[in-house]
Amino acid sequence: MNRGQKDDLRKLVEGDIFFDEPMGRYTSFGIGGSADVLIFPREVSELIEIISYLRYEQVPCFVLGKGSNLLVKDGGIRGAVISLIRFFRRIKQAGENKDCAMIEAQAGISLTELIDYCLKRGVMGLEFASGIPGSLGGGLMMNAGSFGGELGQVVKRVTIINGEGKIREKERNELSFSYRKLHLSKDAIILSALLELKTGAANKMAHKVKNLLVERRLKQPLKYKSGGSVFKNPPGFFAGKIIDETGLKGLKMGDAMVSDHHANFIVNLGEAKAGDVILLMERVQREVYERKGIKLEPEIKVIGE
Ligand SMILES: Cc1cc2nc3c(=O)[nH]c(=O)nc-3n(C[C@H](O)[C@H](O)[C@H](O)COP(=O)(O)OP(=O)(O)OC[C@H]3O[C@@H](n4cnc5c(N)ncnc54)[C@H](O)[C@@H]3O)c2cc1C
């Protein structure tokens, strides 16, 4: 990105803008080189102008949520990173009848805030996502799930901006969710979603959320920085169990380590580089393939250069 483009963006952006910003500050791994520019737009109209400008200037653009499923390489990101997590956080109840409650939320809200909002209003159906440290936008793109639930199951409608800067609404029947993936065009940005949930007993839900959070704390190495599960579960298997059986728990590259608590987590012991994590991922994939004949596919997204 050249100086003129940076000057233009500074004038265009009303929200927050940072140049040459280290991405380690915005990822749960705490790892990542600098992005040329990181933008937190305030309004939809501003976002549309930014997208149009970047498209015209042929500047690549990446959408960042809470960075909890990302490994940003040490060379950083050329082009622009746009994130909705600062200013696109509105949430409202959009209707309710006897059993059903509709919640409309913007993509930048965290899943934790969303669940708290639901708990306070006796709205059930998102408890499965308790403790997933992402945003609604990232959660939808990843079809995030746990304890038998997935976000795709509760979506009624998603509003996106496409690559031409046009706003489009996609109804449930136009959306294709699969394991850890929502199939949208490459340059789509999720703005908001309408979720179809249920009315229920707040105390029962609070109890369930509490139990799931305890279970998470017992199973996951939450005292270290990480990107969550590194590999997808191959059909019929658990990636963590396979890696454990291959004897790779505790394996280290620099400050990156295959967690000795949960083998499908790679943790950052302090100063890990993306290069260390990538070498470790490749080693795990190689050894699991050699010993078990199973190909592990990454769940975390590796981006940048
Ligand atoms: C400790 C820990 C535990 C975890 N547990 C789980 C779990 O139980 N289940 C699970 O599924 N995941 C889990 N994860 C992974 C992660 O939290 C989820 O994938 C989460 O949904 C990612 O959301 P995010 O906002 O952080 O997205 P990011 O990591 O920022 O981005 C993920 C993808 O979504 C895209 N994206 C983000 N926002 C938008 C948007 N508005 N429009 C379009 N694209 C967008 C990004 O471009 C990227 O491709 C865990 C992670 C950690 C660190």
Spell out the blueprint of helices and strands.
Blueprint: H1 3-12, E1 16-22, E2 34-40, H2 44-56, E3 61-64, E4 70-72, E5 77-83, E6 91-96, E7 100-106, H3 111-120, E8 123-124, H4 136-141, E9 145-146, E10 149-150, E11 155-161, E12 167-171, E13 177-178, E14 181-182, E15 189-199, H5 202-219, E16 225-229, H6 239-245, E17 252-253, E18 256-258, E19 265-268, H7 274-292, E20 301-303
Parallel strand pairs: 2-5, 3-5, 4-20
Antiparallel strand pairs: 1-2, 6-7, 7-15, 8-15, 9-10, 11-12, 11-15, 13-14, 16-19, 17-18, 18-19
The structure holds flavin-adenine dinucleotide (FAD).
Verbal overview:
The radius of gyration is 20 Å and the shape is globular. It has seven helices and 20 strands. The chain is α+β, with helices and mostly antiparallel strands and 305 residues long. The protein folds into three domains: 3-83, Uridine Diphospho-n-acetylenolpyruvylglucosamine Reductase, domain 2 (2-Layer Sandwich), CATH 3.30.43.10; 91-206, Uridine Diphospho-n-acetylenolpyruvylglucosamine Reductase, domain 3 (2-Layer Sandwich), CATH 3.30.465.10; 221-303, Alpha-Beta Complex (Uridine Diphospho-n-acetylenolpyruvylglucosamine Reductase, domain 1), CATH 3.90.78. Strands 6, 7, 8, 11, 12 and 15 form a six-stranded antiparallel β-sheet that branches. The chain has a four-stranded mixed β-sheet with strand order 1-2-5-3, covered by helices on one side. A four-stranded antiparallel β-sheet has the order 16-19-18-17. The protein binds flavin-adenine dinucleotide. Flavin-adenine dinucleotide binds next to strand 3, helix 4, strand 9, strand 15 and strand 16.
